[in-house]
Amino acid sequence: MPGHEAARRAIIPPLSISGLRVSYGSVTAVNGLDLDLETGEVFGLLGPNGAGKTSALSAIEGLLRPDAGSVTIAGIDALHQPARARAHIGVQLQTTSFSPELHLVEIVQLFAGLHGLRLDSAEVVRRLASMDLAGEARRAYRQLSGGQQQRLSLLVATLHQPALLLLDEPTSGLDPQARRQLWDRISDLRGQGGTVLLTTHSMEEAAAVCDRVAIIDHGDLLVLDSPANLLSRFADDPRVRKVAHGQITLDDVFIGLTGSHVRD
Amino acid sequence: MSATEVRPLTLSTNPVRQLRVLLTADVLVQVRNARVLLITLVVPVVMLVGIGHNQRAQMPTNVRLALALMLGTALLTVITYPSTLARDRELGVLQRLRVAPVPSWLILVSRLIIQVCATLILCLVLMLVGGFALHLNFRPSEYLWTLLTVLLGSALYLGAGQAVVALVYSPETVRATSALVGVGLILLGVFGHTPLLGSGFETIARWSPGGAYADLLAAATAGGAWTGSLAASLAACVGYTAVFALIGVRWFRWTRS
């Protein structure tokens, strides 16, 4: 990459959201969200069910058109040039799948082709091997375990070395080993300068991998800080102390700020 | 991976190349669904050559070919296409493709091209089988007319299939609805050419999507002259295709919810 291009990328944030508003009829899912991600950080978007996480992510991905606001990905207006902006993001959706009949090699070649990458079979197998999937290269997607499917999804999302990686509840449904492995991979990506925006219900996950987290509820941004700062900032907050059992955790901060009632 | 590898690549996304990789994947999916492929190929062939001698005597060979073509078109388009699309919508396959830098319409165009090509191949197979087994002799112009008619018919039936998957969300209901629509189109095609259920019904069936397509197919396979009635059938087919496509595009949702 030429020097000036690298410098440009260092200046332009991988994601900048301003006044993002998404509604479904009379229900406001995202209410004027402002976010700026820094290059090389892992950012967690936290919130209970129905808080607006997936709606915000869908608007960033260009899967739904927001009512108001702007989304800029690597300097590109994602609302007016969605296809161009999508070339700079890698996405792992919450409920996503590949054609069950396709083999892993074919899936990787399909998505590489859609991103304008030319990968021969040997290169595809090498990339699969980087995710411990070389042995499954000629197996159909439907034959994979949940952990293998998640690893393939992450590989496909990062094939084109995106400026921004979006992960929607990436460890949902994974066993502890697979979850830990995915955290390691996210940390690796950060170590290599990648920027990640993930949504999660797991405060353990947020604390383990995120540099900063934003807690949203009913579409509103409640708080934005590093996990460590959140703990110190809200340690004496009566809402948090009320729900804490012993030492304050990120779970307590989350429940204290968003309420104890169960969401559907 | 080294540290430099994570830096974003600047890649050119060419729609022609994207269509090529989508077509490759869609062909593979089609081929791997061997059972469906076999049924859609075998059933029309059996219908063409498997009718008993007594019925053969009563039914002109070109009408049998037209019926087999109508059945094949319905199986490959209005019955199979919406079911596969609804399944992929349910699984999230379509959403996964949409987050790639590919225009959404290209994802559907690729699938439609595959279905149209499969229908044209089936048409050629049926005409060749008709030639060998039933001693039908087609002039090159008749091959061309029949292929063009099947092309129009597949557009019409794919439009109907797209409308089904646009208006119905559950894959199970899509499967049932598309089967009903497919059978309905075939029956309308049959009853549009017989007074069995009365002349009033015959007239309605004759101008239905199934009847208009059957009319064009019968004329194409018989090598008949172009008439005003055929022009009206052609106009009806084009009109129905436009209406179905409009519904199919306007109300189509990429996710079930």
Describe this structure in words.
The complex is a heterodimer of chains A (264) and B (257). Chain A is α/β, with parallel strands linked by helices and 264 residues long. Chain A contains eleven helices and ten strands. Chain A has helices at 3-11, 53-61, 82-86, 104-114, 121-129, 146-158, 176-191, 203-209, 227-234, 238-243, 250-258; strands at 15-24, 27-37, 42-46, 68-73, 76-77, 89-92, 164-168, 196-200, 212-217, 220-225. In chain A, 45% of the residues are buried. Chain B has 257 residues and is an all-alpha fold. Chain B has one domain (15-250). Chain B has helices at 15-32, 34-49, 53-58, 61-91, 93-98, 104-133, 140-167, 171-191, 199-206, 209-222, 228-250. The radius of gyration of chain B is 20 Å and the shape is globular. Classes of the chains: A alpha/beta (264), B mainly alpha (257). At the A-B interface, helix 1, helix 3, helix 4 and helix 7 of A face helix 1 and helix 5 of B.
Summarize the structure.
Helix content of chain A is 39%, strand content 23%. By secondary structure, chain A is an alpha/beta fold.
Task: Name the descriptors.
heterodimer; A: 264 residues; alpha/beta; six-stranded mixed β-sheet; 11 helices; 10 strands; 23% strand; globular; B: 257 residues; mainly alpha; disordered N terminus
Q: State the largest interface.
A: A-B, 45 and 39 residues
Low-confidence stretches of chain A: none
Range of strand content of chain B: under 5%
Task: Give me the Rg of chain B, rounded.
Answer: 20 Å
The assembly state of the depicted protein chains is heterodimer
List the helices and strands of chain B in order: HHHHHHHHHHH
- List low-confidence stretches of chain B: 1-6
Sheet with the most strands, sense and barrel status of chain A: 6 strands, mixed
Note the topology:
The complex is a heterodimer of chains A (264) and B (257).
Chain A: H1 3-11, E1 15-24, E2 27-37, E3 42-46, H2 53-61, E4 68-73, E5 76-77, H3 82-86, E6 89-92, H4 104-114, H5 121-129, H6 146-158, E7 164-168, H7 176-191, E8 196-200, H8 203-209, E9 212-217, E10 220-225, H9 227-234, H10 238-243, H11 250-258
Parallel strand pairs in A: 3-8, 3-9, 6-7, 7-8
Antiparallel strand pairs in A: 1-2, 1-4, 4-5, 9-10
Helix pairs in contact in A: 4-5
Chain B: H1 15-32, H2 34-49, H3 53-58, H4 61-91, H5 93-98, H6 104-133, H7 140-167, H8 171-191, H9 199-206, H10 209-222, H11 228-250
Helix pairs in contact in B: 1-6, 2-4, 2-6, 4-6, 4-7, 4-8, 4-10, 6-7, 7-8, 7-10, 7-11, 8-9, 8-10, 10-11
